[in-house]
UniProtKB/TrEMBL annotation, chains A, B:
GO cellular component annotations of the record: cytosol
Protein name per its UniProtKB record: Fur family zinc uptake transcriptional regulator
Annotated keywords: DNA-binding, Iron, Metal-binding, Repressor, Transcription, Transcription regulation, Zinc
Classification lineage: Bacteria, Pseudomonadati, Pseudomonadota, Alphaproteobacteria, Caulobacterales
Family: Belongs to the Fur family.
Keyword Transcription attached: yes
Cofactors, names only: Mn(2+); Fe(2+); Zn(2+)
GO biological process: negative regulation of DNA-templated transcription; regulation of secondary metabolite biosynthetic process
Organism: Brevundimonas lenta
Length: 160, 160
DNA sequence: TCAGTGGTGTTATGAGATAACATCACATGC
DNA sequence: GCATGTGATGTTATCTCATAACACCACTGA
């Protein structure tokens, strides 16, 4: 993360109420779909939502226990895999971190704008698909999933 | 890599002559730029070129010595960092692998089509930048570098 | 010839992720 | 009720990926 400029307070984490609401929504939706929103999955999603920015898996592991006890790695990685599969979280490959999905739409190919200075990320709806789809068609590839991540500076860090 | 279909021979590696020529070109170009194309850097580039597809860092480490002796990790990671900085190689974050740059143009933002079946990759010139740039402008971000990787099936694996 | 810069060699360790296997919870059919 | 199958979890160990730190070397320019 920060290498050149100081850390700023960007968007910041959502309020506790926001987190609760999002958790409730997710729980209700997945339960309705016949999925099991277990304690571990809810806890990991809660941590991601509360952070409001990408979080490293081992940070989730460290923060997992409400009593300060860390989780075992597979506990968190399994929850992340589930959340990702269900579109509630995304892995950001270029920084090996995970973030709650901020888009309401299910089954989307997300793209991210990532500030290398303060760590803020913005999830933007696949405005990229067009160009990539065109290239894929030209090459004869059938795309299953995409990783689109742009690194740079957020408005706040640019202003600083 | 392969999970569903068998491994096919896709494009395959280039001929030894192709590799030699590309190595010579890279050497000449960087030397002209005042960079030092050292043995380790040339060797890693040679391995990447010869593979003709993404290679894991520890595979490069294992293949490094012509006598079968592996390299020490930093040797290869340093060479990769240099090659990437100079536009001769790319890291593919979604699979933690490295590939020789197949584009002639310097200083480009590459995008990749990656076959999850046979491992073939196609480097396509940033046809993606448009959409992403637009989104970044809208969000006020200044983009420095991008990671664009599409996973799916290549034509050969689709046909199989 | 001496300092500065950039590259290499080496050791060790940090960070990210998963394999394997035992156990548990829960829904469904009998 | 209770057997049975499926999916989730707990636990241990390990594997893969990547870099920190420090000593040494090669080249360049004052």
């Amino acid at each position: 993360m920060g290498e050149a400029c100081h850390h700023h307070h960007h968007d910041g984490p959502p309020t506790a109420a926001d987190v609760e609401r999002a958790l409730g929504d997710a729980d209700a939706r997945l339960t309705a779909e016949g999925e099991r929103m277990t304690a571990a999955r809810l806890r990991v999603l809660e941590l991601l939502l509360a952070a409001g920015e990408p979080v490293k898996a081992y940070d989730l592991i460290a923060r997992f226990g409400t009593d300060g006890q860390p989780a075992k790695p597979p506990t968190v990685y399994r929850a992340l895999e589930f959340l990702e599969r269900k579109g509630l979280a995304h892995r950001i490959a270029s920084i090996s971190a995970y973030v709650a999905c901020s888009s309401g739409t299910i089954d989307h190919s997300a793209a991210f704008l990532i500030c290398d200075c303060c760590g803020a990320t913005e999830e933007v709806a696949a405005p990229v698909a067009e160009g990539l789809d065109r290239a894929a068609r030209a090459a004869g590839y059938a795309i299953v999933r995409t990783t689109v991540e742009a690194h740079g500076r957020c408005p706040a860090c640019l202003a600083a």
